[in-house]
Amino acid sequence: MSVQLLRKAGNISLGDEGGVTIVHEIPAKESILQYVGFKVIDMKPGAQYEEALQQEECCIVALRGRITVADGERTFEHIGTRDSVFEKKPTDSVYVSNDRTFLIHADKEARVALCYSPSDKQLPTRLIRAEDVGVEHRGKYQNQRTVHNILPDHHPSANSLLVVEVFTEGGNFSSYPPHKHDRDCLPEESLLEETYYHELDPQQGFVFQRVYTDDRSIDETMAVEHGDVVLVPAGYHPVGVPDGYTSYYLNVMAGPQRIWKFYNDPAHEWILNRD
């Protein structure tokens, strides 16, 4: 099956003064994904971005810079904690439910990720404070990474969305051993589509990401550069980081049930049982 999994950054200006630029726009149900939508916008100081949600929820992640977010009832001022994701500290986010309109104001230059999934049950708008984001260290040997759990499955404040950040140092693999979550057969495995938004430090770096299914109907290995997005409609999806570079990616997951239950590739699961 031939699918376009790797999406390169673009630049589409909005507004008369070009204060907002769309870097990525991947609408749910208009790509190869059915449950996950994703957008990245760059905002100049003072710029505003407004969006009316319909049957979808959104997690607004302040990747860098400072923003103010309002939904007509609540306003969260000057949120965001870093000028680069590679400060490696959690950031602030805002969850907005379906059938609401939100407005983002850039208090300073900012890059913002908008993470979407279908939703038909309205929930309260909520600020996810940086200090409430769980930090987790996973793996050992050359399989180590740090995870920021922005919107994990154990927190009931969303209908479908799961959102995490992952930092991986050079010489390590991440999302490894290869695992997948493309079958709706709980409790063994949940069906979750996924997007990976990548950044690299230094920016001229690259990582390798493979996406493959058991039957190899999808089997693609990509050289992923700074600012790229990889779509994972199904299959295993490990990431390898070359020496000398640090990898950051933002994961968005969603599916018919809000549970993250993955299945390791049996050919490589032995790696977990080393002494």
From TrEMBL:
Its EC number is 5.3.1.30. Transmembrane segments: none annotated. Pfam families: KduI. Involved in the isomerization of 5-deoxy-glucuronate (5DG) to 5-dehydro-2-deoxy-D-gluconate (DKG or 2-deoxy-5-keto-D-gluconate). The keyword Isomerase applies. It catalyses: 5-deoxy-D-glucuronate = 5-dehydro-2-deoxy-D-gluconate. Keywords: Isomerase. Pathway: Polyol metabolism; myo-inositol degradation into acetyl-CoA; acetyl-CoA from myo-inositol: step 4/7. One of its GO terms (biological process) is inositol catabolic process. The keyword Isomerase applies. GO terms for molecular function: 5-deoxy-D-glucuronate isomerase activity; glucuronate isomerase activity. Belongs to the isomerase IolB family. This is 5-deoxy-glucuronate isomerase. HAMAP family: IolB.
